[in-house]
Each structure stands twice: as C-alpha cells, then as structure tokens.
Specification:
By secondary structure, the chain is mainly β. The chain contains one helix and 13 strands, in the order H-E-E-E-E-E-E-E-E-E-E-E-E-E.
Length: 282
Amino acid sequence: MKNSGVLLLLWGAVLQGVCAQAVADVAISPDFTLGLALGQTQYRATERNALGNVTNQESGSLPHAMVTGRWQHGEWFAEAALSVARHDVAYQGFTQIGIPLTTTTALAMTQSGLQGGRRWRSASSTQWQVSGGLERLQIQRHILPGLGSSPLREVLTTTRAVASVAVQQDLPAIWVSAPVALSVGLDVMPALRSRLDVDSFGVFDPITLQPARSTDWRVKLKTELVLSRQAILWLGYTHESLQPGGSSLAVWTRGGVPTAGVRYPGSQQSLRTLSMGLSLGF
C-alpha cells in the first residue's frame, strides 16, 4: 500500500507537469493570437560632421504602444505588428553659423512589419523560432525654433528586410503555479530603401535626400506568464540600434533657384523599450 501511495503521488506529479506543459503549448500557439502592449522607449540620437565632431544630439523618453496579430498552423506562423511612440525630446546642437542651440524636438516613430516563419521544440522545455519578413520604420523629427534658428521637419522613412532567430526556455514554477517562460531573440535588419524628406517651412524648398543603406539590429528579451489556455501576460525589453548612412550632396533651392548644397551626414540612434503586454488566443 505504501508503494502504491508513492506511485500515485509520482503519477500525479507527472500528470500535473504534463498538463501544465500542455496548457503552455496551447496558450502560446493557438490558431490566432491578438496582443496589446504599453511601455516606455528611451531614445537617443547623435549626428556628426565629416570630421567626426558632434553636430547635434537628441534624447528623451517616449510612451510606446504596440498591437500584434499572429496566425499559427502547426509549426508555421505569420505575424503582423504595429507600434507607435511619440513625445517631445531634448535637442542640443548648433545653428547654421555655429552658435550652440538648445531646443525641443517633437518626435514621432511608427514601425509596422509582417513576418513569417517556423517555431518548433528541440527539447521538452526549449523552443526555437526562425522567421523573415519586411518592416517599415518612419521617424518624424519636428525641431522647434530656438534663438537664432528656424523650425525644421525631417521625416526618415526606411524599408528593411528582417531576419530573426529566438529561443525560449520554459522555467520551473517556483514563485507562481502558472507556467513561466524566458526568451531571447535577435533581429538583423538590412535597409532596402531609405529616404529623408526635409521641410524648412519656407526658408528653402522642400527636398528629399537618399541616405546610404545600412544594417540595423535589435535584441529582444521577454518573460511570459501563462494565465490560462488563451491568455499570456508578458514583460519585454528591446534594444534597437539604427544607423542610417550619409547621403550624397544635393542642391537646395529657394523658389526654384539653386541656393545651397546640403547632405545628410548619417546618424547613430538607439531605442531601448521596456513594455508589458497581454496576448489573447482565439
């Protein structure tokens, strides 16, 4: 009887583990999943001249919102995502005649993308995911006028290919009874096409520049808590590096008359986003 009791306890523990794993699998990979996330993005950008000297810097924190939709069929999936972040950030640079300038940039960023790929288990507690797709990033910078400077609006629009790999590890439920998983991923994003639209509000005619293509990257960390068969609560962190290249020299006109030469020097930009989201399966 004692041996039977021990066997029953062991069998119960095995069943509990199998059921918990089944809940995790079903909740993580339903036919269709809709997700919503809110968070905060720390933004920093630096531009330098041909000599390597800093000409302007921007930094600040932006509220961030993202919505995702994911369709899963067996190991294969397709996913669409849209995210928006906007707020005023601090601008430090120089005027056209070299006078230090401190002002504000009204910054707005929009990212949209579509990916497809495969997700599979390599072990009982480990899942891998590989995917590829396209992404469109638009960064609008409205630099407000300061002492000795005029307003300026720049809209950088980049279409990028995306190649992604991620691994997820199921963790033992130590503090909570619900299944928990930790994942890490890497996105490599070579630019396919970039354009920079510049509007000086009448000082010069609007102009479009062509930044050189570059390769961006993004690291993703996520912790998931499976609440039920159809609901996952998650906390995520991403660090994205953007490096649009410099453009060739172009003629800037005023009233159609050539007036000055202008080029985009390129920039180094980083986005660090901490967000919390909820995914619901249908």
